[in-house]
Each structure stands twice: as C-alpha cells, then as structure tokens.
Amino acid sequence: MVPRFLDGVERWPRGDAVIDALSRGVRALPLRGGRDLLHGRWLGHPVHPLLVQVPVGSWLSAAVLDLRPGRAREAGSLITVGLAAAAPAALAGAVDWADLHRRQQRVGLVHALANTAAVGLYAASLACRAKGRTKAGRGLGFLGLTAVATGGLLGGHLAYRQAAGVNHAEEVPQVVPAGWHRIGSVAEFPAGRTARRTVDDVPVLVVREADGDFYALAERCSHLAGPLSEGTLEDGCVRCPWHGSVFRLADGWNVQGPATSPQPVFDTRVVDGHLEVRLREPGPAEDDTAQ
User: Fold this and answer.
1) Among residues 154, 266, 141, which one has the least CA distance to residue 205?
2) What is the Cα–Cα distance from 8 to 153, expressed in whole angstroms?
3) Total-model pTM
C-alpha cells in the first residue's frame, strides 16, 4: 500500500508548475560558495541527512518527556532547539532538491510539505505551552511528530528507492575488469573534444588535449548519472550538461557541485597507435604507464 502511494506521488504532474517556480527560486539564491557547502561537497555526501538529525532527535526527545509528568519545561526547550535547527536543514535540502530529476522533485515537494507542517505544529505547540495550555501543547507536539515521521518516510523513498543523493558512479570500480583495455585508435579522438567509449559496457569519457595527452573518466556523472561526454570542457575540467557539476580531468575530483563524489578515473597509454585505458587504483599513478 505505501509503495503504491509513493509511486503515485512520483507520477503526479499537477504540482509541476509549483516545482518549476520553486526550483528556479532556489537556484537563483545568491549562495555562491555556500551552495557547495550546503550540498556537502566538503563532506563527500549530502549534508542534509546529517542536519536533520538535530530537529528530529530534539522533537522525538520532547515527545518522550511529554509522556512523563512534570517535564513540560524541558520538552519545550527541546522543541525550541528543533525549530532553530530546522532552518539550515531545510535550506540544505532545498538546494539538493532543486537539482534533482522531476520524479524525485515531486516526492521531495511532498516531503518538504510534511516537514513544513511539522514546523508549524511545533511552533503552535510552543505557543500553547507559553500560554500555560500544556495539554494542547502536548497534543500539537505529537501531531508534529507524526508529520515528521511522514516526512521521514518520503525522505527514505527519495534516498533508497529513487537514489537521490547517492553516488551514481560507485559501481564502476566494482564492474570494470582489471588491466588495460583498448578502446580505439588515436585518430578517433580529435583534440579538444569529448568522446564516449565503453569498457565492458561501462561508459568512459575520453578527452584528448591539444598537446596529445589523454584523459579518461567514468562517463556517467556521480550526481545523477548525467552524460559527461555531452558536457563542456573548461580549464582542464568537464562540466556535466545536466546540473553543472565540474570534474577535473586529471584525477576526477569534483571541483564544483552539486556532485559530492569524484568520478572514477582511468590511466591512459598509447600502444601501436591505439588508446588503452585502465581503471586507476587509489594512490599515485605509475609514471611509466600513465599519461
């Protein structure tokens, strides 16, 4: 029943106009370097799930205290902490959400609405407690916790069913066979342009620089599997055409989000006029084989 409902949310198009307006607004925020900070590029994975632990933990603890007599003041303090922590968590989530696929955004919008309802209920609960209406404050607090649980259900669907925020290039080191793989003659790769080849059905981005050096990365962007071979080359980097993540060709490092994970990188060599690639292991490349 629950999976069927969530699948229906993915396919529901009536909120798409709202999604378009909200996502444009989020992308237009003057965050500059703060955008990558909120994405969690510095952390290596999205920071939003980390931030939500504070409001969720605070509100759950408040509910436990509300079940015990004489602890209303402490419960109110925890609700206040949760409300204060909800703002940065929501901002980080919104920045991630604006760069998702449409079906993911649909679920994300309902997730945000549930959490917004929770914030409203907890704010009302706190107001009731301040006026001495402790019983009403407790009731609103339990309703807020229900809304939080609903938001968590939707967030779990986003993360585990729809793979939002996960590393979409993680499988590459697991499926690419060890050793060197011939992927084409040198003449097939014009300088200064991107090319797409495969190694055992794994797409690989190949770039030949003007000086003749070759670079190769996993072709599907770690953010949402965008086609890097259709991206643009910029100062030794490639920019994903879908959401603008930028990866350094030399080592696959994600120099700009929303991607929080680097791209798997391949060593390259030319043998008998043909280009060969080998998945690079962690650590420095071998000087006698890598270009």
Assistant:
1) 266
2) 14
3) 0.89
Alpha-carbon span 226 to 230, nearest angstrom: 9
Q: What is the pLDDT of residues 140-171, one digit of tens each?
A: 999 999 999 999 999 999 999 999 999 999 99
SS3 content of the chain, % helix, strand, coil (to 5): 50, 20, 35
DSSP assignment of 70-123 equals: T-HHHHHHHHHHHHHHHHHHHHHHHHHHTTS-HHHHHHHHHHHHHHHHHHHHHH
Q: Are 204 and 198 in contact (CB under 8 A)?
A: yes
Residue whose tokens read 């629950």: 2
pLDDT tens by residue, 252-284: 999 999 999 999 999 999 999 999 999 998 754
β-pair type (265-271, 214-218): antiparallel
The identity of residue 196, as a single letter, is R
